[in-house]
Structure formats: C-alpha cells, structure tokens
Specification:
A ten-stranded mixed β-sheet has the order 2-1-3-12-11-4-5-10-8-9, sandwiched between helices. Strands 6-7 form a two-stranded antiparallel ribbon. The two termini are 24 Å apart. Strand 8, helix 7 and strand 9 form a beta-alpha-beta unit. With 354 residues, it is α/β, with parallel strands linked by helices. Helix 6 packs across helix 7, helix 8 packs parallel to helix 9 and helix 11 packs across helix 12. The longest helix is centred in the middle third of the chain and has 17 residues. The protein binds nicotinamide-adenine-dinucleotide. Nicotinamide-adenine-dinucleotide (NAD) binds next to loops. Nicotinamide-adenine-dinucleotide binds next to loops.
Length: 354
C-alpha cells in the first residue's frame, strides 16, 4: 500500500531541492502518494497567510511530511512558518545528525554527532513584546511595581519559558534515542549559571531523569564550553541535548563541521506527527540558479523512509549518497564542484535504478 506523505516544497531553493528529493525517493521504488501543499511566500501572496489551514490538515491526515525550507523575514513580517508548524503539531523533538562523510573535506575526521533540540519552548515560544507597544508598556509597569525590575524604555522583549513537562519529554526522548541507536552518551548544554530559572529547570529536570537512565552516559556542560569542545574535538561528542535556541545554533555548527548546510538532514518529531526537513534555510542568495545542493533534503527524505518503516530504501538512499560523494565528479559548488541540483538527483536516481 502506498504511503501518504505531505510534500511542502517551501520557497527559495525549497522547490528545487524538494523536486530532487522526490525524484530520488521515487527511484528508490517506494510507493508514495504525495499531497503537495504550498506554504511560505507563495501562499502568503495568494492566500494572505504563509501557513494556510489546508497544510496542517494535510499533515494531520498523512501524519508525515517532507518539507523544504521557508523564508522568515527578519524583524518584521509574518511569524516563522517553521516555528508555527512545530508548535501547532507539537513536534517537540528536532533530531539532526552530523556525520563525517566520505569524499567531503572538512576540518575534522570521524565526527558522528546527533543534535537533539527541544523544539517548542524557550525564546522561540513566540512570546514577544514590540518596543514601544502598549502591551510592553503594561508589562514594564507591572514588573517594576511587583518586582522592582526595570526594563529600558527603548527595549524590545522576548520571554523565555522552559517547563519541567517540556524538558522531561525531550530528555526521555534523548535517552531513548541514545539507547535505540547504541550511542555512548548524552551531553546536555545549558547556561543555568546565568538563567537560573529557565535553563535551571532544563538542567535540574535532566539530572533527575538521568538517574533513571544510568545505562546511557550523561554529562552536562555550559553551552559556551560545549561550543569550544565542538570546534576543538568534536569526535569526543555523541548525542547533544539542547534547549531550542542553543540547539538551533549548534546544529548549524555541527553541520559546518561535517561539510556544511548542503549535507545536513533533520527530523521534527512528536507523538503523532513527523516533519522531515533539512537544517538549511531557503538560501535566497542561490535560489532559482539550480545550484543548491539537494543532499540535505535527500538525506532528510531517507530519514523519512526509515520512519515509514522503509528501512531498506532509506539505507539504500544513504549508501547511494555516500557513493556519489566518494566518486566526487557530481558535486554542487558548495562542495567545490560545478554540478547542478538536477545533475545530482539524476546521478543518484541512475545509481538507484542500476
Ligand atoms: P540558509 O541556510 O538559507 O543559508 C546560509 C548559507 O548556506 C547561504 O550562503 C546559502 O547559500 C548556503 N546554503 C544553504 N543551503 C544550501 C544548499 N542546500 N546548497 C548550497 N548552499 C546552501 O540560512 P539564512 O540565509 O540564514 O536563511 C535564509 C532564510 O531561510 C531565512 O528567511 C531564514 O529564516 C530561513 N530559514 C528557514 C529554515 C527552515 O525552513 N526550517 C531554516 C533556517 C533558515
């Protein structure tokens, strides 16, 4: 029976890399009924919202989506569709593997990391107060009256909630993930020395949970020190467990350690739904030029195939990507080659059907 999957091409380079991924999945001979749903800039122009209800309805029906990147205007404009999707569907865990790949030159060898990022809370919860707004003025007055804290009149404010409930489920998820994938240890990154009541909850809750998961190694590090170790000796790291903002930043760092954003896949998982998407964004600087590296999107599709129970097809796609990288003649410009997005998907599809 065909798997039903919502395909959100996204914007910028999204449609280019999504088409490539779809082509490769089809060449892997997995029967998928795609429900293509536009979101992002195109939907905003036509329907007045970047995330129309039909997109969420489609994912609620299919339970699984493959998603290209979607642009979020900086500072103004619509709220991030990516963040909204994760919150609406309660996709609380982002899983982002970064592994040294054959044929890809990078500063370090033998890197094999997985970033597990809490996806729904923290500074990305979307609780924002615009500088000079009446809501912020009320908040400033309340805070001064009740606590004596004074927020500068010309400040903008973002609130950082981190709950025990939200932390407990991501910590359990991380330990389960480590156990299932035979990982050595979980390293938690935090800044509980400074943000005692938000990162403090993250750290204390994780320390309690770690007691119940003693079969997996556990350590905690301040996130700045963790960043130093990642740049210095990333081979000593394994599963990284991070609150939302640090997870976002360190997953790009981890991608940079192993060949860049063009190669870094990701999954957003909740109890009910799963949305697979690359770590990279819509790359407006190269959009429409046909030179985006589709491998991050294709490896995200491979993660999706495994999730759908198509382990063999997922593994075949991953092996085929490794063969293409090792062979080295069909690489996009980010990897030093001159191939186009389509050249890469053509080559992968050829290998897969051979
Ligand atoms: P980006 O990831 O789009 O680009 C950063 C750099 O990496 C650029 O130089 C780009 O050309 C390069 N790059 C990214 N993907 C590539 C690929 N597949 N092949 C070759 N080169 C690639 O990050 P950005 O420029 O900070 O963000 C652009 C937009 O994307 C923003 O609006 C941002 O909010 C959005 N964004 C969306 C997602 C998502 O949809 N999940 C994630 C991150 C950023």
């Amino acid at each position: 029976m065909a798997h039903r999957v919502t395909l959100i091409p996204g914007d910028g380079i999204g449609p280019e890399v999504s088409e490539a991924a779809r082509r490769v999945v089809e060449a892997a001979c997995v029967d998928i009924e795609w429900d293509v749903q536009d979101a992002g800039e195109g939907a905003m122009d036509l329907e007045g919202t970047p995330l129309p209800d039909r997109v969420l309805e489609s994912i609620r029906a299919s339970r699984t989506a493959l998603k290209g990147p979607i642009t979020t205007p900086v500072g103004t404009g619509f709220r991030s569709v990516n963040v909204a999707l994760r919150q609406e569907l309660d996709l609380f865990a982002a899983v982002r593997p970064s592994r040294s790949l054959p044929g890809v030159p990078s500063r370090h060898e033998g890197v094999d990391l997985v970033v597990i990022r809490e996806n729904t809370e923290d500074l990305y919860r979307g609780i924002e107060f615009e500088r000079g707004s009446p809501e912020l003025e009320r908040l400033r007055r309340e805070l001064v009256e009740r606590t004596g804290y004074l927020i500068a009149e010309d400040a903008g404010v973002t609130i950082k909630p981190i709950s025990v409930t939200g932390t407990r489920r991501i910590v359990r998820f991380a330990f389960d993930f480590a156990r299932r994938h035979r990982r050595r240890k979980v390293t938690l990154g935090h800044k509980a020395n400074i943000m005692k009541f938000s990162d403090g909850v993250f750290l204390r809750t994780a320390l309690e949970e770690a007691e119940a998961h003693r079969d997996v190694g556990f350590e905690e590090l301040q996130v700045d020190e963790l960043a130093m170790w990642l740049a210095w000796e990333p081979q000593t790291m394994d599963v990284l467990l991070l609150p939302n903002l640090y997870g976002d930043i360190l997953s790009d760092l981890a991608a940079g350690l192993t060949g860049g954003l063009g190669l870094a896949p990701g999954a957003n998982l909740g109890w009910e739904y799963a949305v697979f998407e690359p770590v990279h964004g819509s790359a407006p600087d190269i959009a429409g030029k046909g030179v985006a590296n589709p491998i991050a999107m294709i490896l995200s599709a491979a993660l999706m195939l495994r999730h759908l129970g198509e382990e063999g097809a997922g593994a075949r796609v991953e092996r085929t990507v490794e063969a293409l990288l090792t062979e080295g003649s069909t690489l996009t410009p980010d990897l030093g080659g001159s191939a186009t997005t389509q050249d890469v998907s053509d080559a992968l599809a050829r290998y897969l059907v051979a």
